[in-house]
Design brief:
- 36% of the residues are buried.
- It is built from 6 helices and 6 strands; from the N terminus they run αββααβαβαββα.
- 42% of the residues lie in helices and 16% in strands.
- A hairpin with a 5-residue loop joins strand 5 and strand 6.
- With 188 residues, it is of the alpha/beta class.
- Strands 1-4-3-2-5-6 form a 6-stranded mixed beta sheet.
- It folds into 2 domains: 31 residues; 152 residues, 3-Layer(aba) Sandwich (Glutaredoxin), CATH 3.40.30.
Length: 188
């Protein structure tokens, strides 16, 4: 086989590896996906009512619950979502941040297009950081919120205005340098 023919056979492999590396970097670092624009930022959140997650021992929530004067961080997750498993330790850490708890910040979970039993199993296995948790089996609420895919995290001001949207899995760096500062801005 000539050198040129070997190169032609290796070209698809090289292309695949380059694309896989790009996807990995974007997934782990948030890349530009964390800065996708949302037309809802600065506007009232859409009306919704979520069903309770049976067995979670946490109340469900609706848009009215996000207008009670407290900043709420809404995390969209699913048991079938591998990046959700990667970001879950950051959510556990966020739920235990004393300064945010003292300021009244709540963490709410939106189980997106997932079987309730599987969502409960996920939270049983990895821990439940959520004060409120609702089930969006059809994905309708997620669509209304402009969810591109899971995981996504929203910061909602106490008056129900969407303050910030983070697309993709949270990392230690994005939690510290992006999400917590956005929560602090929403508290002011």
């Amino acid at each position: 086989m000539t050198q040129k023919r070997r190169f032609i056979f290796l070209l698809p492999l090289v292309g695949f590896l380059a694309l896989a590396a790009l996807f990995f970097v974007q997934l782990k670092g948030g890349g530009n996906s964390a800065r996708l624009p949302s037309p809802l930022v600065g506007k009232p959140i859409p009306a919704f009512t979520l069903a309770e997650l049976p067995g979670a021992q946490r109340p469900a929530f609706s848009d009215a619950d996000l207008r009670l004067g407290k900043v709420t961080v809404v995390n969209v997750f699913a048991s079938w979502c591998v990046p959700c498993r990667d970001e879950h330790p950051m959510l556990m850490e966020l739920s235990k941040t004393e300064t945010l708890a003292k300021a009244g910040v709540r963490l709410a979970g939106l189980a997106y297009k997932d079987e309730p039993a599987k969502s409960l199993g996920f939270l049983t296995q990895y821990g439940n950081p959520y004060a409120l948790i609702g089930v969006d089996r059809s994905g309708r609420t997620g669509i209304d919120w402009g969810v591109y895919g899971v995981p996504e995290t929203f910061v909602v001001k106490g008056d129900g205005t969407l303050a910030y949207k983070f697309v993709g899995p949270l990392s230690q760096e994005s939690l510290r340098n992006v999400l917590i500062p956005e929560i602090e801005k929403a508290l002011r």
